[in-house]
Specification:
130 residues; mainly beta; 6-stranded antiparallel β-sheet; 4-stranded antiparallel β-sheet; 1 helix; 10 strands; 3% helix
Length: 130
């Protein structure tokens, strides 16, 4: 059993992020992990909550792959010119230099696990956008 002093609830850890990537409203997020310099693995692992009517604005990253895992709720995902519905259990991989965003157009919170991983040189796109 965990020591009560080491257990924290996500409600106490979330930080408000107004207009995330130019999105609508205020989402709530907690960066659960950040890779250390010269470390291995993911750049970061975030937990995010989008209340109804909020969004993560359309944006791009560099030569990395950002993955959204929908834990609860549903919404409209935009990826590289295509809009499609996502719901609990869906995994969306956003390609390097690709444009993506997410809108919670439903009546309930949309909860996500978001992680970004750098690409090995062998997978990195060459000559600009892929």
């Amino acid at each position: 059993m965990a020591d009560a002093g080491t257990v924290r609830n996500l409600r106490d850890l979330f930080t408000a992020k107004a207009h995330d990537h130019g999105g609508t409203g205020t989402i709530h997020a907690h960066r659960a992990f950040t890779r250390q310099p010269d470390g291995q693995g993911a750049e970061f692992v975030d937990l995010a909550v989008l209340p109804p009517g909020t969004s993560i604005g359309r944006h791009r990253h560099g030569a990395d792959r950002e993955t959204y895992i929908v834990l609860d709720g549903s919404g409209l995902m935009f990826r590289d010119g295509v809009t499609f519905r996502v719901a609990a259990g869906d995994v969306v991989v956003n390609r390097p230099h690709g444009e993506h965003g997410l809108v919670n157009d439903g009546p309930a919170e949309l909860r996500l696990l978001v992680f970004e991983e750098p690409l090995p040189d062998s997978e990195a796109p060459r000559g600009g956008s892929a």
